[in-house]
């Protein structure tokens, strides 16, 4: 991706989460993840940052390895940054998701979310026809999260076990969402 005239390469894990990035000058930053983003480090830049998040997974602070507060963020319900203090560059914000600094939209694996309009900018390719193809979190971003861009769940679902939280591959080449227990749907991707 080109960002402000510089080329940035991203490395993704199996859940399509960014786990590393490399800038055009060769600096590599690794992102350590748990239930969300926990920390980042770069040997070349000799930096280590710890991310503090709220109950929705939104990054509220970025700390140095000495626990100095470097960045502070506050958000409205839909993810617009309403208060921001930054000493270091950070691309992870609302719900711990990657913010594109050029478009000011969040990358949610399958499509982009625009917090200004509170909707996705591409239609939902999994559910096909319908009236809510661009809707984000059933218009309730306080009670729901949608890290995949396709399937929202309660904010509590962020803390469920891997088996409950992540899709399972099936023989049809699609996946079965474990959040739709008892009423599972298989979608081919």
UniProtKB/TrEMBL annotation:
Q: Does the keyword Cytoplasm apply?
A: no
Question: Which species is this record about?
Answer: Roseburia inulinivorans
Name the domain of life. Bacteria
| Domain spans labelled Teneurin-like YD-shell | 4-131
Q: Indicate what this protein is called per its UniProt record.
A: RHS repeat-associated core domain-containing protein
**InterPro entries, per the entry:** Rhs_assc_core, T6SS_VgrG/RHS, TEN-like_YD-shell
Residue segments, region Disordered: 153-189
What are the alphabetically sorted keywords of the record? Repeat
């Amino acid at each position: 991706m080109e960002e402000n005239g510089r080329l940035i390469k991203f490395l993704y894990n199996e859940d399509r989460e960014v786990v590393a990035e490399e800038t055009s000058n060769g600096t590599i930053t690794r992102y350590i993840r748990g239930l969300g983003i926990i920390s980042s480090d770069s040997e070349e830049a000799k930096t280590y940052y710890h991310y503090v998040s709220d109950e929705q997974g939104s990054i509220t602070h970025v700390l140095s390895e000495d626990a100095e507060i470097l960045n502070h963020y506050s958000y409205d319900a839909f993810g617009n940054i309403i208060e921001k203090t930054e000493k270091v560059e950070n691309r992870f914000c609302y719900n711990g998701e990657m913010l594109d600094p050029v478009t000011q939209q969040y990358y949610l694996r399958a499509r982009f979310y625009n917090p200004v309009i509170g909707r996705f900018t591409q239609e939902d390719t999994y559910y096909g026809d319908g009236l809510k193809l661009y809707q984000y979190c059933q218009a309730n971003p306080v009670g729901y999260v949608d890290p995949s861009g396709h399937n929202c769940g309660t904010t509590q679902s962020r803390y469920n076990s891997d088996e409950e939280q992540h899709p399972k591959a099936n023989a049809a080449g699609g996946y079965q969402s474990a959040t739709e227990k008892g009423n599972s749907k298989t979608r081919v991707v």
